[in-house]
Design goal:
About 35% of the residues are buried. Helices cover about 50% and strands about 15% of the residues. It is elongated, with a radius of gyration of 30 Å. Strands 2-3-4-1-5 form a 5-stranded parallel β-sheet, with helices on both faces.
Length: about 625
């Protein structure tokens, strides 16, 4: 029996298991070492939750502390503090901050710290070494604490480290989880940056700030006029090489054997994220599992997502982020649509409408997602984190919680989907090239009012006396019969037709809202197929229609929520035209796209001539 627990990032961090991040560490070391010459710089490190931001700061602290004794004076003193320790009261935060600095400074100076966090005893030890200003700050801290003045106590504690240093050392500030500073009670948002502002502007102190919520942190920086003072470093997954190296110490310590090809696949499946690799190694060790091949790896991964350690990680994450179950359900359903179904949401308006219900509550959900690092707001646009493990978890949560499927069924679906797409070459055929042209067209096209004739090939020639499309372009804008199409902000790639793939093998999947009204009732999905055969037959349309019906059943779509469109080339069987009209399938010939391409200054990709023609 083994007991596993966590004592926080600073205690559980193992420098021997840190790999990669050479570029980021090199830049941060340069910033820290230049502080010895009085040249300070400020850096903001941001990225999704548990991507490795804290590990970078702790590795940097370890590297600075390990500088050789013969290094020129003054030496850098790396002070690491995580604001996630104290979430609520400013008096508690000021006390913790003051104590942590004294404790770490004594350890850095080679003075054994007292057995407990005793500020008086630590100040006496520093006073003996000549750092007497600590006593004045400690006396001020007591006065503010007795008066209940949290803001003054916080300003006093945060200001103290900037008064230390000299010919022997200079402080380097490593502030982690900075987004939690907006959670302080009865303190204005951005108060910490207000306190730090004169020290940042002075340009004498290396200050490195890390957080999962760049929106909240950067808004505080802009409010204080500090945004331009910071250099920005975004942290993502490890490089494939560093990710493979990270398996070695973890597997050796746990006695796990995994072949090199399977290590590479496991790294890719986990998005090359270090914390997922550690969790997966623990899962293998805990279950005493043997992984002989790719299928065994995918089975264990799916089990970990549906009822294992990766599952537990994200379950606790969302339970902590959204304590109210009904709100948590709406947040998970929203993220599932964006990250799994690839709804191309990129605006606040569209996101709140997709969440549904009370707009104020929808805005609160978006704010929590941004605070937790799953969402990044950039002016008026939104960006969501790309996390493969999170995507699979959301798929499980929706299928298990909303549709009532068992975990084994969901795990089987995850395994089937991953293995079906494994090893397939993403070669660009004529179909893929044409799909890219149509996607680009849909991005640039506002999709509001479009003449119905463009989507009805069967009646086009009859209506215009056998004339071609380009012959009637002049009178097109006066066409009275128009169709109001959903607003599409961008287009996501759907499932391509490949043997062994998923059953909904559409070439393009898009979505939008009718009448430009963002609501659940007006949500519309588009399923688009690109037929490159010489002739479009009724059998092809029937196959397409059957897939659309399955999609409607699987997604629970109401009548009118699924629009069907086939772009074809060559001739068409009259029976196919009749079948399309009967089942509401829109048909568009490839030559008709020239109008769209010309209107948006896009060059149409010409088909490659066949040999001998």
């Amino acid at each position: 029996m083994r007991l596993l627990w966590s004592q926080g990032a600073a205690i559980s961090f193992r420098p021997a298991e840190f790999f990669g991040r050479e570029e980021e560490l090199s830049a941060l070391r340069r910033v820290c070492l230049e502080g010895g010459a009085g040249i300070g710089a400020s850096v903001l490190i941001y990225g999704p939750p548990n991507i490795g931001k804290s590990s970078i700061l702790l590795k940097l602290k370890a590297d600075l502390a390990a500088l050789p004794e013969g290094s020129p004076l003054p030496r850098p003193f790396p002070f690491y503090f995580s604001f996630s320790k104290i979430l609520s009261h400013p008096l508690a935060l000021s006390q913790q901050f003051f104590q942590d600095y004294l404790w770490q400074l004594l350890a850095f100076l080679g003075e054994p710290p007292p057995a407990g966090f005793d500020p008086e005893a630590m100040c006496e030890s520093l006073g003996i070494r000549g750092y007497v200003e600590c006593r004045d700050f400690l006396a001020a801290h007591r006065r503010y604490t007795n008066a209940g003045d949290g803001l003054s106590a916080l300003a006093n504690a945060v200001s103290y480290p900037f008064t230390t240093g000299g010919k022997d050392f200079y402080p380097v500030f490593l502030f982690d989880d900075f987004q939690y500073t907006i959670k302080l009670q009865n303190i204005p948002e951005g108060a910490i940056f207000s306190i730090l502002r004169p020290f940042i502007k002075s340009g004498h102190f290396p200050i490195i700030v890390s957080g999962s919520s760049p929106g909240h942190v950067s808004s505080s920086l802009k409010r204080e006029g500090l945004y331009g003072s910071f250099q920005l470093i975004e942290v993502g997954g490890l490089s494939p090489e560093a990710s493979l190296q990270a398996w070695g110490p973890m597997f050796e310590r746990r006695g796990i054997h995994l072949s090199e090809p399977l290590r590479s696949r496991a790294s890719a499946r986990l998005g090359n994220v270090p914390i997922y690799q550690r969790m997966f190694a623990e899962e293998i060790s805990f279950r005493n599992a043997q992984i002989p091949d790719m299928v065994g790896l995918e089975n264990l991964y799916a089990l970990s997502v549906t009822e294992g350690k990766l599952n537990r990680y994200w379950r606790e994450f969302f339970e902590n982020a959204f304590p109210v179950r009904t709100v948590r359900v709406r947040a998970i359903r929203f993220l599932k649509r964006v990250l799994c179904d690839r709804f191309p949401i990129d605006t606040f308006e569209g996101a709140i409408a997709l969440i549904g219900g009370d707009p104020e509550e929808g805005g609160a959900i978006l704010s929590v997602l941004e605070f937790k690092g799953l969402l990044k707001s950039d002016f008026e646009s939104l960006q969501f984190v790309e996390d493969p493990v999170l995507v699979d978890f959301l798929f499980w949560a929706f299928e298990r919680g909303m549709l009532g499927k068992s975990s084994s069924q969901v795990a089987a679906a995850i395994v089937q989907g991953k293995i079906a797409r494994a090893g397939l070459e993403a070669s660009w055929s004529e179909r893929e090239k044409r799909a890219e042209v149509v996607k680009e067209m849909m991005r640039k096209w506002d999709c509001r009012e479009v003449p119905a004739l463009l989507f009805d090939f069967g009646t086009f020639r009859d209506r215009f006396g056998g004339k071609g499309l380009l012959e009637v372009v002049i009178g097109l804008e006066r066409e009275e019969e128009t169709v109001r199409l959903p607003k599409i902000s961008s287009v996501s790639t759907g499932y391509r037709t490949r043997r062994g793939g998923t059953r909904f093998d559409f070439d393009l999947v898009a979505y939008g809202f009718r009448e430009s009204h963002f609501s659940e009732e007006n949500l519309v999905l588009w399923a688009v197929d690109l037929a490159v055969e010489r002739s479009l037959s009724p059998a092809m349309l029937e196959h397409f229609e059957n897939r659309c019906r399955l999609l409607s059943l699987e997604k629970g779509l109401r009548p009118g929520q699924l629009e069907k469109w086939i772009l074809f080339e060559g001739s068409i069987d009259p029976a196919a035209v009749e079948y399309a009209a009967r089942n509401g399938i829109r048909l568009t010939h490839r030559s008709q796209l020239r109008l769209f391409l010309n209107r948006f200054d896009m060059e149409e990709t010409e088909p490659t001539p066949e040999p001998g023609k």
